[in-house]
Amino acid sequence: MALSEKIKLGHWSRRAQTMTGLAVVVIAFIAWSLRPLPVPADFTTVTRGDLVVTIDDEGETRVKEIYIVSAPVAGRVERIELEVGDPVIANETVLALFQPQDATVLDARAFSETEAGVRLAEAERDSAAAQVDFAKAELERQRQLAEQGTISKAAFDRAMLQLRTSEAALNQAIARVVNRKTDLETARAALAKAGRQTGGTVKIDYIPVRAPVDGRVLKRMQQSEGILSAGTPLLEIGNPANLEIVTDLLSADAVRVNVGDDVMIEDWGGPNVLKGIVQRIEPFGFTKVSALGIEEQRVNVISDFVSPHEQWASLGHGYRVMTRIVTQKRDNVIKVPVSSLFRTDGDWSVFKVVDETARLQLVELGARNTLEAEIISGLAENDQVIMHPSDQVIDGVRVEQRE
């Protein structure tokens, strides 16, 4: 082969190699540019720590022992000057001044009616006595006629019966007079006891209604002066330092609560989380309509404060609080956010990040609350999982940390 031909062949070989290399590079670039992009996702690290399971719901504070002070008798109450929040001392503080119904009107009228009843009974007695006298005279006439044989024995017997009937009526009338006179004496004593009579008028003393316990005025149902019937509520008295918390839980949640469970009290307005303890679970439920209009069976759970009174002294009767009742405590467990969990054919799963790739991983759960769940098997500490996986995250897809 001539030298010139060899030179040309060498040039062609180098050119072919260059073209082939360029083609490989172009193909590789095209393949790289067309490859799927990583799916952005939020990563989180599996940690180890304590897990607390709670039942959260709104509660309301209330004074443990509330005393409703009512009108002791029917009558007039003076204007109540005490304000809500005013302190009261047991058996000393006068809550209200009460005047029984006016004896000049009521008792004098009753006394007059009783006197009239006595006069009526005496008139009935006199009428019955006249009937007895007439029956006696009639019986005497019938006896004389019977001796003469003018009337039958039956007529004489009827006259005898009439006399006995009249005598019985007289005895009843006499008894009524005695009863009426007894009622008159009772009315006279009641009128004298109601007050001292001067010139036909009766002076009535006021009855002071005193505080039954130490505490404060919680509610005032009656303020203005007025005529009230016996038992009308006037004031509510209680000690705000003796508070408890009432939380109405769904009945399905209440059965998981036990007496003695710890309670965390939050969102009450103060800077600290207060501590409490479940004191009582009421044994009966009630129906309550939720904000969505759904009827729910609720149960009252009563809790006491454990934190010192100084920390919650600003709370009062009927204040709103948020209670978190602790039903489980798990120490030093592997846990993940609940937002990373989802169901796969009935099993709990997560997407575990391995070499920037999402891998479907089945897990076994233990205790969990609204934020975290205990992992019994399937993950290890410091593993990375995806939170809130989107529909683009599937097994084997490349993922990257969302910026």
Describe the structure.
It is a single chain. The chain has four helices and 24 strands. It folds into four domains: 39-52 and 332-401, conserved putative lor/sdh protein from methanococcus maripaludis s2 fold, CATH 2.40.420.20; 55-62 and 240-329, Efflux pump adaptor protein, beta barrel domain (Elongation Factor Tu (Ef-tu), domain 3); 71-100 and 204-238, OB fold (Dihydrolipoamide Acetyltransferase, E2P) (Beta Barrel); 103-202. β14 and β15 form a beta hairpin. It has 403 residues and is an alpha+beta fold. α2 (103-148) packs antiparallel against α3. The strands form six sheets. It has a six-stranded antiparallel barrel. Strands 3-12-10-5 form a four-stranded antiparallel sheet, with no helix packed on it. The relative contact order is 0.19. It has helices at 3-34, 103-148, 153-194, 251-254, and strands at residues 39-45, 47-63, 67-70, 75-77, 87-88, 94-100, 197-198, 201-202, 207-210, 215-220, 226-228, 233-238, 243-250, 262-266, 274-289, 295-305, 320-337, 342-344, 347-354, 357-362, 364-368, 372-377, 384-387, 399-401.
Strand residue content: 35-45%
Number of H/I helices: 4
SSE series: HEEEEEEHHEEEEEEEHEEEEEEEEEEE
Poorly predicted tracts of residues = 196-202
Radius of gyration, in angstroms, nearest whole number: 49 Å
Counting helices, strands and paired strands, the structural category is alpha+beta
The count of strands amounts to 24
Q: Describe the global form.
A: elongated
Largest sheet: 6 strands, antiparallel, barrel
Strand order of the largest sheet: 2-13-16-15-14-17
The overall pLDDT average reads 84
How far apart are the first and last residues' alpha carbons, in Å? 66 Å
Residues in helix, %: 25-40%
Number of domains: 4
